[in-house]
Amino acid sequence: MPSPSTSSRAHTEVTREGLVALLNEDLAREYQAVISYVVYSQTIKGPQYMNVAAELEVHAAEELAHALLIAGQIDYLGGQPLGVPKPVRISADPREMLQFDLDAEVETIGHYRTRVQQCESLGEYALAEHIRGILVQEQDHQTSLASALGVSTPDASPHAIR
Question: CA 149, 152, 153: angle at the middle one, nearest 5?
Answer without folding.
Answer: 95
